[in-house]
Amino acid sequence: MLSIAGLQLTEAPPQGFWRVARAPDPLSVGPLPTPEDLGDPLLGTRFASARGDYGVLYFGTDLECCFGETLARFRPDPEVLAAVGSDWASAQSGFMQMGAVPADWRQRRLAVRVAVPQNARFVDVEDLKTRQALRSHLAKVLVAYGYPDLDVSTIRGPDRRVTRLVSQEIHDFAVAEMAPIAGVRYDSRIRTGWEAWAVFDHVPLTELERLPITRDMAPLAKVAKIFGLVVH
Questions:
Q1: Where in the sequence is the domain holding 48, given as residue range(s)?
Q2: Angstrom distance (rounded) from CA 106 to CA 215
Q3: Taking a C-beta distance cutoff of 8 angstroms, is the pair 75, 68 a contact?
């Protein structure tokens, strides 16, 4: 079993963290991944259970991170961009709809801020010391999947099999040792500095506030501008 030695632990932000998810219950964990999902490197979420035996909720330190993660899929596909160039974002072109976020997307979601227990700690997988400890423990798996290292590109990469195993090792250690490890701290794959948190479903959450998602929210407008999107 994984040892605590080498794992770098960090506290949750004192103000709590945010999640953008579907109403009416944005804190619902949802169904666990199926065996088919678990066998596919591109299906499922990044730090879900590798065995499908626990749930995970994802949060951002701020709403900018949350909107960055959730709105990224509205960006035009690179193949489309290669074909039409920059005209997709022009109001005079026929491609405006490609960069549009429908009002229905906002109306079906809520922003919720929560806190975790004060003694909760998160394993920081962005810290080299953590990855070094996990690298040794998961060496056989890395070789089997064809990865030469457990580096930033692997942790933030598209292969969910590896990141799910990272999550499973941390979760199993926390349960077996009754350690106050609540999940994983990591950076968004889209932008370094967008700090995100994967919280295991056994961790009690205290809801601090929830907000409707409106067009005039500053973090939403900022992310939309970065991505070149129009929010309706």
A1: 9-231
A2: 8
A3: no
Residue 24 located in a structural domain: yes
Specify which residues 181 forms β-bridges with: 121
What is the four-CA torsion angle of 49, 109, 215, 17, rounded to 10 degrees? -50
Evaluate whether 50 touches 141 at the Cβ level (below 8 Å): no
| Nearest residue to 150 (alpha-carbon basis) of 168, 170, 127, 173 | 127
Question: How many other β-carbons are positioned within 10 Å of the β-carbon of residue 70?
Answer: 20
How many domains, the chain?
1
Give the torsion sign (CA, 185, 18, 78, 193): negative
Structure tokens at 83: 């074909």
* Residue 1: inside a domain: no
Q: Could you tell me if 21 and 114 are in contact, meaning their C-beta atoms sit under 8 angstroms apart?
A: no
- Which DSSP letter does residue 92 get? T
What's the gap between Cα 104 and its chain centre? 22
State the pLDDT confidence band at 4, using cuts at 50, 70 and 90.
low
User: Full-prediction pTM beyond 0.70?
Assistant: yes
Task: Indicate if the pLDDT at residue 80 is higher than 80.
Answer: no
